Amino acid sequence: MNRFVFIFIGIASAFITYRCSILKTNRHDIQEIKWPKPVYDFSSNSISQVGFELGRKLFYDPILSRDSSVSCATCHLQYTGFAHVDHAVSHGIDGRKGTRNAPALINLSWKKFFHWDGGVNHIDVQAINPITSSLEMDNTLEEVIRRLSSNEEYKYLFQNVFSSKEITTAQIMTAITQFTRSLISQNSKYDKVMRKEEGYTFTEQEKNGLQLFRNHCASCHQEPLFTVNKLKCNGLPMNPLINDVGRYAITGNPEDSLMFMIPTLRNIEYTFPYMHDGRFKKLKEVINYYCNEIDTRNTYLSKELQEPIRLSSDDQKDLLAFLLTLTDKDFLFDPKFSYPKN
Amino acid sequence: MLSLSGRAQNDLIFLPCIKNEAIVLNHPISDGVNTYTFNVLKLYLSNFQGKNSSGETSLLMPLALVDLEHPDTRNLGTIQQPLSSISFNFGTDSLTNVSGVLDGPVDPINGMYWAWNSGYINLKAEGFFTDSLNNTIPFEFHIGGYLPPFPTAQNITFDSLENSKIPSVILNMNEWLAIVIKEGHTNVMVPGKIATEISKRIKESILLSHTNE
Questions:
Q1: 3-class DSSP assignment, residue A212
Q2: Given the DSSP bridges, would you call strands B154-158 and B85-90 parallel, antiparallel or unpaired?
Q3: Within an 8 Å CB–CB cutoff, is residue A228 touching chain B?
Q4: Using DSSP, how many helices (H) and how many strands (E) does chain A show?
Q5: What is the tens place of the pLDDT at every residue in A6-44?
Q6: What is the DSSP annotation of A220-244?
């Protein structure tokens, strides 16, 4: 990988994306806005070429799982926005099934909380969960360190990154996040139109879809991240087979019942199935749910959804057309994020 | 009687006890009524500060994991001068809980980190409780949580120390464990109201001892 690529990766996450001007438009007005400042403190773990490569290798290596059968990439596939399309919920070793849909890994440096219930408060500790969860990799940190420490290639790579002969939990976790924090998607048609790049314009249908989006969806899926990175109850009835109470399981506060993380809509075309339990396979089903199926009597329903969203069939199609402009194929098929060949 | 072999005169010691008798893992110990056997006992102490007679405050120990599997961890360090007061936290502070992955005593490999609900377990106690009627009850307490309204870190201050002696700090586990178990709580594994109430009981069970060994 050449030097330019890593200048992009390292700098983009901290500066370029932050400073990158995009254009907020409506039918009559064009107003320049900036990306918000990333949540992640880059001074504590700046991205280097060797750190990124080590993180990528760990991300794709099943050595992290107890029986060496499952890697991070098993449930987070690049070409589906680092989400999981095969199953409604994630699955781990021995075919064990979890209770939630594997979320997309996109623009993580802007996230303050992780997992559908927001139970993880820092990206650098996130990977501890899938590694040690009995439903996912079912391993221990001691065993992971033992395996990596007895592997000559990893010993060399860790020493090269951290200048230390001893491999530690912190080194493993921060190496993984050097890779996952680099998963920045900002080159969709939407982005190109907003940046006024030559040759990129919205169709009339997409323009109308954008307007509908801003009127009905943007309070939770705010541009340019297409999420406000908060937890809300969207009114989905609880699946009685899972009885997932959402954020309430973390805080013990009844007011947090059935609250789940608002996901980004970037690359939403490819990150199916949808919702925390993957109950919807198609975007049309999601739009239909918000337009026609929300039970407004739900005690926990977020205030943003108290007023029913009424969209005609044509408007629903226009909204869908706009959402497809959030697909960033440069990101989905970028070889620097794919399985390491060497 | 407290007992800690090899203790130097100026060492600051934290002793988990049953009725002032130091706990040893996997050895039954009685408070005169109930008997306790601990298989696991670990806890965090942080921001241990001392004040001398001139009113100067110094940080004696930023953070420690006391783990009875490694009895030496009960020794928190050497005090250089007589102190008039000490203060410390039972548990880890909120900043530690939101700082990502850390090394040393707070390395998640020590088994005191909740992966599903970020944050540290401030006290882990697992074992068996036998009451006066010979009923044996297994217990498992993972007391932690830093978010309001259910924080579990507790600040403890002892003033008016005897300047001539370095005290031991003891945690009489029987003072809270017997009560909590008799209230019906034998497994507390999540942050919340009960964990916070237990952390307050733990605070009340920590006291000083000037016992000479």
A1: helix
A2: antiparallel
A3: no
A4: 15, 4
A5: 434 444 444 444 444 333 434 334 344 579 999 998 888
A6: TS-TTTT----EE---PPP-TTT--
Contact assignment for B115 to A125 by CB distance below 8 Å: yes
Q: What are the strands, taking DSSP E only, across chain A? A: 21-25, 30-34, 231-232, 260-261
Instruction: Please count the helices (runs of H) and the strands (runs of E) in chain B.
Output: 3, 13
Q: Please report, as a single letter, which amino acid is at residue A313.
A: S
Give the burial string for A236-260 (b: 16+ CB within 10 Å, else e). beeeeeeebbbbbebbbeeebbbbb
Q: Which residues of A touch B109 (CB under 8 A)?
A: 141-142, 145, 169
pLDDT value, residue B78:
86
Domain residues of chain B, as ranges?
A: 11-209
Class of residue B122 by CB neighbours under 10 A (exposed 0-12, middle 13-18, buried 19+): buried
Contact call for residues B87 and B44 (beta carbons, < 8 A): no
pLDDT value, residue B41:
98
Instruction: Compute the distance between CA of residue B59 and CA of residue A106 in angstroms, rounded to an integer.
Output: 42
Q: What is the pLDDT of residues A167-217, one digit of tens each?
A: 999 999 999 999 999 999 999 999 999 999 999 999 999 999 999 999 999
Residues of B in contact with A254 (CB under 8 A): none
Largest interatomic CA distance in chain B? 53
Interface subset of B 147-186, CB within 8 angstroms of A: 147, 150
Q: Which residue has the tokens 């005690």?
A: A299
| Whole-structure pTM value | 0.89
Q: Does B116 touch chain A (CB under 8 A)?
A: yes
DSSP state, A256? G
Apex A256 CA angle, A251 and A261, nearest 5: 95
Q: Report the distance separating Cα B193 and Cα A245, nearest Å.
A: 18
At B8, is the pLDDT very low, low, confident or very high (cuts 50, 70, 90)?
low
pLDDT digits (tens, 9 = 90+) for A218-261: 999 999 999 999 999 999 999 998 999 999 999 989 999 999 99
User: Side-chain half-sphere of B198: how many Cα atoms within 13 Å?
Assistant: 33
Any chain B CB within 8 A of the CB of A44? yes
| Cα-trace Rg, chain B | 17
> Cβ–Cβ of A170/B113 closer than 8 Å?
no
Interface contacts A/B by beta carbons within 8 Å: 62
Q: Tell me the CA distances in angstroms from B128 to A275, B125, B141, B189, one per residue in order.
A: 43, 10, 11, 16
A63 is written with which tokens? Answer: 């050595």
Q: Which residues have a Cβ under 8 Å from the Cβ of B185 and sit 6 or more positions away? A: B194, B198
Helix or strand run (H / E) with residue A53 = helix A49-59
Contact at CB, A170 and B101, closer than 8 angstroms: yes
Strand (E) or helix (H) holding B196: helix B193-204
**ipTM of predicted complex:** 0.86
- Among the partner residues B100, B147, B193, nearest to A124 by beta-carbon distance: B100
Q: How far is A338 from chain B (nearest CA, A)?
A: 26
